[in-house]
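hey so u asked for the seq, here:
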Amino acid sequence: MTRADPLAQYNKKRDFKLTPEPAGKVAKGSGNRFIVQKHDATRLHYDFRLEAGGVLKSWAVTKGPSANPDDKRLAVRTEDHPMAYADFEGVIPRGEYGGGTVMLWDRGTWAPVEGKSAKDIERGHLHFTLDGERMKGEWLLVRMKPRKGEKRENWLLRKIDDAYAGGSDDLTGRYLTSVLTGRPMAEIAGDEGGEQSLKGAKGKLFAKKMTAAAAHNRKVAKTAKTGARPPKFRKLQLATLVDSVPAGNNWFHEIKFDGYRALVAAAGERVVVYTRSGLDWAGKFAPLARHIAALDLPPCLIDGEIVAYGKDGNPDFSSLQAVLKRGHGAQDEATDLRFFAFDLLEEGGKPLTALGNLERKERLEALLGDAAPPIAVADHVIGAGEKLYDAMCGAGQEGIIAKRADAPYAGRRSKNWVKVKCTRRQEFVIVGWKESSAKARPFASLLLAQREKDELVYKGNVGTGFDADTMATLAAKLARRARKTAPVEVDRAAARKVHWVKPDLVAEIAFAEYTAGGAVRHASFVGLRADKEAKDVTPETRAKAPAPASDVKISSRDRIIFPEAKATKGDLADYYAAVAPVMLPHLARRPVSLVRCPQGRAKQCFFQKHDSGSFGPHVRHVPIEEKDGAVEDYLYVEDADGILACVQMGTIEFHGWGSHADAVERPDRMVFDLDPDEGLDFADVKKAAADLKRQLADIGLVSFAMLSGGKGVHVVVPLSPGHSWDAHKDFAKRFAEALALSEPGRFTATMSKAKRKGRIFIDYLRNQRGSTAVMPYSARAREGAPVAAPIGWDALAEVDSPRRWSIGDAEDLLERAASAELKGWGFARQALPDF
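ran it, structure tokens below
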């Protein structure tokens, strides 16, 4: 690729009278610029470009960059491009070299790692860092050994495993708009002189309307965000201390971070950081507030923990105090502070506290898809809490938090959140200090107390855990709080040489146990808790961990439901009990139609959507007006017991509406079912799903793939409610018809079996009032007991059957559900284009 004029090949391939691309001239740039352009040419790809030697060294990454270190993406070396190309976005006319739509998808700066340089490109191995809007951290570009007769240079682009590494679908699958103009591909393609992404008369009309709608929606969203205020403070959910990790898959488990609890309220650039008592500490955590503001979030209220890391690489409360003592002006924004978000209480002006814990967590994953360190969503595991607990204790961490997956958020302490600690640590009020005989120490120990029945009760002394700076700071605070009388009752020996203080300082203390008299034994000072008030400091006692329990009894557990798989009703119930936590975020509170097969799938099966009362109290009802004006009670469930009550009544499949029971007339989920003709194989369906995803992305809509457990794939498009069922159905119909018109040999939008010959039917009819689609993780009444399984777009390409998972794979499905591949699956805040 080395040549006298590095841009000769670039200029030779283009007629600048016909293309809007800039002419090739070597130019002096900033020296470290990088860009990525999404390029819809003959094939969609991503052009990755690094500034070096006055030009942009370029590679075409066929599948786009991935933040998953396990993904090695093919990157074909192309001709060098001029520096002016770094700002290019538009449409290259069809017929010209590279004809198609170009989006500026990412931009920023790059640098070789220490000891490396840009000259390593010609050596075929470049190790570098990126600081872009979407691509960050360490990366590798490695040239592959050429095959015999191969003329092009094939390289591999790979992410290094660091703090910025993540799932493979979190980049190209979630970021669908330009970093330069905020436009989706269809809007860029819709510029005058460009071609629409959907061909044909109806397709062009549809695309033009989508282009205008996308621009309108961006403007409306930006206006709404600019004028919005951050949400107000809410009382926090608190965890109950328990003696062991709760068992069962209805719990998910997170690390108990050793830091300050914080409630972040954001609306665009406006950010408030509330302490647990409702104080605004955005000033104290200014670097974090700036990072959150840069995310340009809709109005939202996020619960989480602010931490700093110690020398051992673990979150450390003392290190956090040291950072705060230095002041935010001295803080290194990239390393000193981290905010681990773990809950979402409000979004877009709508409270979410009534939703289940895991559903709120999934919505949080979708909301913070743009986040990168120092902002992160706390990881979790479903079930298997003992393993996480042992790992945390082995690493010297504080412990874990376990949360009941289907429980709402309560602004109080409850057993729906429990904490299991590796060591004893509690808060105490400082009520006095004892003199020290050593000149270097301003005090020998601190006297501690906790509030019991509205009175302070003496709890012993702490004399270790202080360094010189901490002692000096404490001594100054204690001197300002001196008082003559004791704020607690103590015996004469304990009061000897004690200087009493106003009891308003809260300290966190680690200790081995309580003595018979109620004093702490082997106590060590951890730090002051400025975020907690003395009036709230009470003793923590370990309660019994909640036991797994269900009010639903499954009868006839040995009845064969799936003859071929020899799977019983008990097996089916156990499957649903296991996957209920990951199923409920999608199923809960949606009107459902059940496929009931009381004698098994090989016998009589039927749909049921109404209930005469036979399902019991765990299955809820919502009155819905029918087409004829009559009102009928429809079924829905809210928790695992509701699912099991349906299974007890012979249910195999769950099919849900595209709206929720509390907002029946406001659809929020669109599903395209790709149903192939019998002559087609699954590879055709997978390709069709990928094409559908691409067309939706062109108009700025994020979509998700699900194996149906039947013949095909469902493409799921989550939407913000606010449009009517008529608009919902009309959009789905036009979109399906436009695709069918663009490729009539592959697709049909007509249900007719005769017109489906050799084609894939894009079933949009599920997107009308009263229609349903099979829900994620639902079993199917088919041979082999298959299930409908969410799947990442990259993983879809590797699967060879829509029935890949069955009811015997609950453990695998749970593990996948908590993986990077499926974080935030099925959730996205996006409006239906208005036209």
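The CA atoms of residues 676 and 684 lie 8 Å apart. Residues 193-201, 329-334 have pLDDT under 50 and may be disordered.
lmk if thats what u needed
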